[in-house]
Automatic annotation (TrEMBL):
<dbReference type="GO" id="GO:0009378">
    <property type="term" value="F:four-way junction helicase activity"/>
</dbReference>
<keyword id="KW-0963">Cytoplasm</keyword>
<protein>
    <recommendedName>
        <fullName>Holliday junction branch migration complex subunit RuvA</fullName>
    </recommendedName>
</protein>
<comment type="similarity">
    <text>Belongs to the RuvA family.</text>
</comment>
<dbReference type="InterPro" id="IPR036267">
    <property type="entry name" value="RuvA_C_sf"/>
</dbReference>
<dbReference type="InterPro" id="IPR003583">
    <property type="entry name" value="Hlx-hairpin-Hlx_DNA-bd_motif"/>
</dbReference>
<comment type="function">
    <text>The RuvA-RuvB-RuvC complex processes Holliday junction (HJ) DNA during genetic recombination and DNA repair, while the RuvA-RuvB complex plays an important role in the rescue of blocked DNA replication forks via replication fork reversal (RFR). RuvA specifically binds to HJ cruciform DNA, conferring on it an open structure. The RuvB hexamer acts as an ATP-dependent pump, pulling dsDNA into and through the RuvAB complex. HJ branch migration allows RuvC to scan DNA until it finds its consensus sequence, where it cleaves and resolves the cruciform DNA.</text>
</comment>
<dbReference type="InterPro" id="IPR011114">
    <property type="entry name" value="RuvA_C"/>
</dbReference>
<dbReference type="GO" id="GO:0005524">
    <property type="term" value="F:ATP binding"/>
</dbReference>
<dbReference type="GO" id="GO:0006281">
    <property type="term" value="P:DNA repair"/>
</dbReference>
<feature type="domain" description="Helix-hairpin-helix DNA-binding motif class 1">
    <location>
        <begin position="72"/>
        <end position="91"/>
    </location>
</feature>
<feature type="region of interest" description="Domain III">
    <location>
        <begin position="156"/>
        <end position="206"/>
    </location>
</feature>
<dbReference type="GO" id="GO:0009379">
    <property type="term" value="C:Holliday junction helicase complex"/>
</dbReference>
<dbReference type="InterPro" id="IPR010994">
    <property type="entry name" value="RuvA_2-like"/>
</dbReference>
<dbReference type="GO" id="GO:0006310">
    <property type="term" value="P:DNA recombination"/>
</dbReference>
<dbReference type="GO" id="GO:0005737">
    <property type="term" value="C:cytoplasm"/>
</dbReference>
<comment type="subunit">
    <text>Homotetramer. Forms an RuvA(8)-RuvB(12)-Holliday junction (HJ) complex. HJ DNA is sandwiched between 2 RuvA tetramers; dsDNA enters through RuvA and exits via RuvB. An RuvB hexamer assembles on each DNA strand where it exits the tetramer. Each RuvB hexamer is contacted by two RuvA subunits (via domain III) on 2 adjacent RuvB subunits; this complex drives branch migration. In the full resolvosome a probable DNA-RuvA(4)-RuvB(12)-RuvC(2) complex forms which resolves the HJ.</text>
</comment>
Length: 206
């Protein structure tokens, strides 16, 4: 397994970053690739998890080892795949997820995309009492809000803006935070990618 990659960020996409390590470009899937936007063309360290299946081999990237460790724990739960685990890790501070599991807060867990009551219960059954080693180190400021995850569909007549709202939802961003930046986005005329970048910049400031 590749522990980490250290190199320059040379491209940012909706679901991934490309990091140049000694003239080899690695495509690394991230919960929120735009967290790396300010580091474009700078040298960074990305902690990785290599996921292998019959039809694909993918690298998933994380800001911190603790994020990756929680991601690995979530993958061990029946019904949770890499996409679902990535959304959970990226959308909330890891310590809040751990606390929700330890306190059996199903209502908190079902706010994540793709997590229903059955899956939330399975997460608790499989992981409660097994995350003690994560608790002392999960004090990371990931600049992500602890809030609800239901994102309303904004009807602006602006297709690019609506596509951006859907993309933010897919990344696991939340209703309350998106509502705060929506008026600013609606006042601009941009491409879908530009709307996403602006929204993420503003949400990270908050």
């Amino acid at each position: 397994m590749i522990e980490c990659l250290k190199g320059k960020i040379i491209n940012i996409e909706r679901e991934a970053i490309v990091i140049d390590v000694r003239d080899v470009g690695y495509l690394v899937y991230c919960g929120n690739p735009y967290r790396y936007e300010e580091s474009i063309n700078e040298t960074v360290t990305v902690y990785t998890y290599q996921h292998v299946r019959e039809d694909a081999i993918r690298l998933y990237g994380f800001f911190h080892r603790e994020e990756r460790r929680l991601f690995e724990k979530l993958l061990s739960v029946s019904g949770i795949g890499p996409k679902g685990a990535l959304a959970i890790v990226a959308a909330e501070q890891p310590q809040l997820v751990v606390e929700a599991i330890e306190n059996e807060e199903e209502a908190f867990l079902i706010k994540f995309p793709g997590v229903g009551k059955k899956t939330a219960r399975q997460i608790i059954l499989d992981l409660k009492g097994k995350l003690e080693e994560l608790m002392p180190t999960l004090t990371l400021d990931l600049t992500q809000p602890h809030s609800e995850h239901s994102v309303p569909k904004q009807r602006s007549g602006n297709q690019e803006l609506e596509e951006a709202m859907e993309a933010l939802k897919a990344l696991g961003y939340v209703d309350r935070e998106i509502k705060k930046v929506y008026p600013q986005l609606a006042s601009e005329t941009m491409s879908t990618d530009q709307y996403i970048k602006l929204a993420l910049k503003e949400m990270l400031k908050r």
